[in-house]
């Protein structure tokens, strides 16, 4: 085998390891191309076969919202997920992660422009305090923009008076998915799906600290390293820099 191909295979294996074995031939080809290598999906698949590696993704889990509905906002977003600038539309949601024999809840806020995660929070209790904390982080990180449309499902964490007051405090507008229509918030569904299938161990974590550190590591990777097809196979941070 040619030395050049062996070197290329070594780079591919490294990217595959960094993805925790979740990256497939398409993603690996795009990553190698970003490094200046002339590699198509067919060659990436061939190199994966030679290296004895394959894409492996865990079974997806879904968080089910529960609780009493209070303040339901109209479905303003209407699945218009393509936006022209940063801080026009943010999406939020909550998922659960297994920690020992319990569940830890993870709330995230995503800017639709480049699919960047701009706020997040963790708690062993899924309530409005959790979602307010994630929202405050997003507001601080993004420089307190006004009149951002914030979209979520009708989970009790978002329909609460506490969360509505937090929205008003920061001058944000609110939109909610229709009841039972999870794809009204598809970008968040996809982000959590990627987190669960690519990163979180199938058996969960042994401690809350371990879970927090590892999930935040994924957020950093997702924002700065992971190539997103929506961004023309650029990371969210790279896409925002390109648009700045």
Automatic annotation (TrEMBL):
The molecular function GO annotations come to:
nucleic acid binding
Residue ranges of domain Integrase catalytic in the record: 70-244
Q: Which domain of life is it from?
A: Bacteria
Gene Ontology BP annotations: DNA integration
Q: Which SUPFAM superfamilies match?
A: Ribonuclease H-like (SSF53098)
Q: Note the Pfam families from the entry.
A: HTH_21 (PF13276), rve (PF00665), rve_2 (PF13333)
- List the PANTHER family hit by this protein, alphabetically: TRANSPOSASE INSF FOR INSERTION SEQUENCE IS3B-RELATED (PTHR46889), TRANSPOSASE INSO FOR INSERTION SEQUENCE ELEMENT IS911B-RELATED (PTHR46889:SF4)
Q: Can you say what this protein is called?
A: IS3 family transposase ISCfr25
């Amino acid at each position: 085998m040619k030395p050049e191909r062996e070197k290329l295979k070594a780079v591919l294996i490294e990217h595959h390891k960094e993805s925790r074995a979740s990256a497939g031939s398409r993603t690996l080809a795009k990553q190698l191309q970003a490094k200046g290598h002339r590699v198509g999906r067919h060659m990436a698949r061939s190199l994966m076969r030679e290296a004895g590696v394959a894409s492996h993704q865990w079974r997806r889990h879904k968080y089910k919202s529960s609780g009493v509905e209070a303040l339901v906002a109209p479905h303003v977003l209407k699945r218009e997920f393509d936006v022209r600038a940063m801080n026009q539309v943010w999406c939020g949601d909550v998922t659960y992660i297994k920690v020992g024999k319990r569940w830890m809840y993870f709330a995230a806020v995503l800017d639709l422009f480049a699919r960047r995660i701009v706020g997040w929070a963790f708690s062993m209790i899924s309530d409005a305090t959790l979602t307010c904390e994630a929202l405050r982080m997003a507001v601080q990180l993004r420089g307190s923009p006004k009149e951002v449309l914030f979209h979520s499902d009708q989970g009790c964490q978002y329909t609460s008076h506490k969360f509505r007051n937090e929205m008003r405090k920061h001058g944000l507008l609110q939109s909610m998915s229709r009841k039972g229509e999870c794809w009204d918030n598809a970008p968040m569904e996809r982000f959590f799906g990627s987190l669960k299938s690519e990163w979180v161990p199938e058996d969960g974590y042994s401690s809350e600290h371990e879970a927090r550190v590892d999930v935040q590591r994924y957020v950093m990777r997702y924002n700065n390293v992971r190539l997103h097809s929506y961004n023309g196979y650029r990371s969210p941070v790279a896409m925002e820099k390109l648009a700045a």
